[in-house]
Amino acid sequence: MKRKLAAGNWKMHGTNASLTEIAALVTAHPAPGADILLCPPATLLARAAVLAADSAVMIGAQDCHAAASGAHTGDISAPMLADAGATAVILGHSERRENHSETNELISEKAHSAHAAGLTTVICLGETLAQREAAQTLEIIATDLHASLPDSATAANTVLAYEPVWAIGTGLTPTEAQIAEIHGLIRSLLSERLGETEAAALRLLYGGSVKPGNAAGIFGIANVDGALVGGASLKAADFSPIINALEATA
Ligand code: PEP
User: Residue 70 Cα, ligand 1 centroid: separation in angstroms?
Assistant: First the structure.
């Protein structure tokens, strides 16, 4: 039975003081009916992992280098993330694609390296507003999906997040029909790539301005198996009702 997933991306937010939010989340969800993954900045990973040990909250990272080790000043490898206590890593977030010029090919290499280190990958893809307005959304999704997914991807080690770039941090969300269309497309593309059984088992998250107020509606859409949440994952008081809404659909 596929477990739904609520994943939080803290981006470049959080210091030692923010660990109280993770503690609050651990306390609020002792036996959740959905998986919970929180991805704090790398500086907090080890402390967060200790805090969440033996709890239902999993700790993940926000990026990794494609190599396992080497002369890459400032970078962090997948085995290092696993060593720090992470069990997952977000890859290909639009902020990394845009701010760090990450290509699908690089994301695929990173994902392969993360799988080799035993990490689950949350691979993000989504169109910009200009691409949607130019009616290129379906083509972009198909291209990015095929090129960023490594051959090592399975339903057990990979989660996909559809994140329209124009919905991230803007308060804008696609219509339910638009989300259903893209998630349906991703599911059928996955079927061609991985076969029907694996495709059905692989979790598809929606991401982009998910809040306590719109979560239940989004989780009711076909082929939505959870959410990747940015701003509303920073405070347990906001993230908890989103998790509760997901549990209600599980
Ligand atoms: C994100 O960064 O992945 C995201 C979805 O952000 P927000 O929820 O703030 O739109």
Answer: 31
Answer for the pair 240, 29: CB distance below 8 angstroms, yes or no.
yes
Which one from 29, 65, 93, 112 is the annotated catalytic residue?
93
Residue ranges of domains in the chain, CATH in brackets: 20-247 (3.20.20.70)
Task: Establish whether residue 204 lines the binding site of ligand 1, counting it when its CB lies within 6 angstroms of any ligand atom.
Answer: no
Q: Does residue 230 line the site of ligand 1, with CB under 6 A? A: yes
Retrieve residue 249's tokens.
């659909």
Instruction: For ligand 1, atom 7, name the residue with the nearest CA.
Output: 230
The model's pLDDT over 8-51, given as tens digits with 9 standing for 90+, comes to: 999 999 999 999 999 999 999 999 999 999 999 999 999 999 99
CA of 129 to the centre of ligand 1 (A): 15
- Residue 127 bears catalytic tag: no
Q: Dihedral sign, CA of 123, 209, 222, 59? A: positive
The model's pTM is 0.97
Contact between residue 81 and residue 43 where contact means Cβ atoms under 8 Å apart: no
pLDDT tens digits for range 67-124: 999 999 999 999 999 999 999 999 999 999 999 999 999 999 999 999 999 999 999 9
